[in-house]
Amino acid sequence: MQERLAKESIGTLLALADMLPGALYRCRNDPDWTMDFLSAGIHELTGYSVREVVDERAVSYGTDMIVAEDQARVWEVVQAGLTARSKWEIEYRIRRRDGQVRWVWEQGHGVFSADGSLEFLVGYILEIEDRKRAEALLGDREAELARKNAELEAVSTPVLEVADHTLVVPLIGELTASRDARLLEVLLPAIVQHKARWLLIDITGLTEVAAASAASLVKLVRAALLLGARCILTGVQPRVARVLVGLDVSLGELRTAGSLKDGLALRQA
């Protein structure tokens, strides 16, 4: 009676295993990952049948299906898990019977005897190709966004040489922390390169200037003075003037003008 119930339980478990997506396995710890058991899902996963892989051993999961570039990494991860007596999780690529390469995720662990020797490995393999494609697409979009942001920053901080030893920097939009850093990164080398004696920073197009950003402008002015360039802040609106006054710092030799035209004239005064 007990033997019959045991067989029925095993039959039920095997039937459930065959219903799962992916493949359950039991294998040996060798480079071929010699399979002693595979659920029926291996056929949909790889294109190979249980008979070919387990019964006939016509193909090896380890050397025929896992792509060559990933084989060493898979081996290292599994051996590390066995040494630590812990489960492993790994993502790698397999080559299906039809030649298509697919990403899979595997989780497994070793089964050890009472004396501590390894008996076999058990685990589960699931295809994750759709997830990998989505991640790759997201990565491409993030890279493209980063590239466009870099281009926008470059365009939003142009340095124009309008006359000998005179540079003009028109600022448009919002002056943020990242643009503050970009200003220093771009302007100080430009002052040296063009041997600038005058630097006109036109803020007519700025929509917002926070106190921290205004303080950064003051630091930029001081850095420019150290490099021998005098600064004129043009296009100063009342709201910006209030922010600058609120900083309660000495503006040193910073001169201001209502417009870029006035600033250029002030340079010659």
TrEMBL record:
<protein>
    <submittedName>
        <fullName>PAS domain S-box-containing protein</fullName>
    </submittedName>
</protein>
<dbReference type="InterPro" id="IPR036513">
    <property type="entry name" value="STAS_dom_sf"/>
</dbReference>
<feature type="domain" description="PAC">
    <location>
        <begin position="88"/>
        <end position="140"/>
    </location>
</feature>
<dbReference type="InterPro" id="IPR001610">
    <property type="entry name" value="PAC"/>
</dbReference>
<dbReference type="Pfam" id="PF08447">
    <property type="entry name" value="PAS_3"/>
</dbReference>
<dbReference type="Pfam" id="PF01740">
    <property type="entry name" value="STAS"/>
</dbReference>
<dbReference type="InterPro" id="IPR000014">
    <property type="entry name" value="PAS"/>
</dbReference>
<dbReference type="InterPro" id="IPR000700">
    <property type="entry name" value="PAS-assoc_C"/>
</dbReference>
<dbReference type="InterPro" id="IPR035965">
    <property type="entry name" value="PAS-like_dom_sf"/>
</dbReference>
<feature type="domain" description="STAS">
    <location>
        <begin position="156"/>
        <end position="267"/>
    </location>
</feature>
<dbReference type="InterPro" id="IPR013655">
    <property type="entry name" value="PAS_fold_3"/>
</dbReference>
<dbReference type="InterPro" id="IPR002645">
    <property type="entry name" value="STAS_dom"/>
</dbReference>
<dbReference type="InterPro" id="IPR051932">
    <property type="entry name" value="Bact_StressResp_Reg"/>
</dbReference>
